[in-house]
């Protein structure tokens, strides 16, 4: 790699800000290309019976991979194929039901030009994104999306900068427009992200993590305060439910309630839990999303929730369970 001498007093901040200004100016003009061709592209992708096969080479290929990934995670089946690999067998991934989505800033990429006759013969709908609708690829397209920008941020006007940003943004515009048109929900999004934090936050429900059966801390209404404290200690959730027959909820008693009992000077040896409990208790149903249960805990400044069907106690979920499940 060549070694260059740094200019004396060079201002990196000014250079960085200039890049932002140039790229923002380019993006500010991009909305003029959100036109009838944009609508046609969205409608074609929405109605596609196959997948959207994204192709590009060089910097356009890197942007293409991101666009394909964004499509796939927002409800549009899509994958990226490298044009050079396509010429050596990967073209077999493309079926006649697929839409081919080509990215080429110049519209003259040889690796893509070599593939266009195959797409035409297979009758694939061809959506192309270039800066020049009169380019070879632009003219071959069934639908052309223009990504022309006034100038690159690179002072040599050589390194793709503003143009790649514009391409990325146009891809996002397509993906989000399609997401909205389909009524794509946060639950749909989570289904394609089950292994990450987003998936855990959006898919995990209270009944996936609650303590149930013998793990539920509970005592009967006639139990003494002492009995309740033993149960709280034994189950280690910082609380106990007070339940009548068949686990019908009467109330709840927590570590915080115990501190208040001390302040009141109550006779701990003779006190009955029914006289000290908080009637009812904050509860959620088993199908409640874990993230919603967490929000409720934070709003009420509590660390545990009763999980119930009406007054029927089914389980208990604790803030610690949220941490262990990665919801927090």
Descriptive overview:
The protein folds into two domains: 18-183, Glucose-6-phosphate isomerase like protein, domain 1 (Rossmann fold, 3-Layer(aba) Sandwich), CATH 3.40.50.10490; 206-325, CBS-domain, CATH 3.10.580.10. The protein has 15 helices and twelve strands. It has helices spanning 12-28, 36-46, 59-73, 83-86, 110-113, 116-122, 136-140, 162-182, 186-191, 197-203, 225-235, 255-264, 273-276, 290-300, 319-325; strands at residues 52-56, 78-80, 99-103, 125-130, 143-146, 218-219, 239-243, 249-254, 278-279, 283-284, 304-309, 312-318. A hairpin with a 2-residue loop joins strand 11 and strand 12 (312-318). Helix 1 (12-28) crosses helix 8 (162-182), helix 2 (36-46) crosses helix 8 and helix 3 (59-73) runs parallel beside helix 8 (162-182). It is elongated and about 90 Å long. It starts with 11 loop residues before the first helix and ends with a helix.
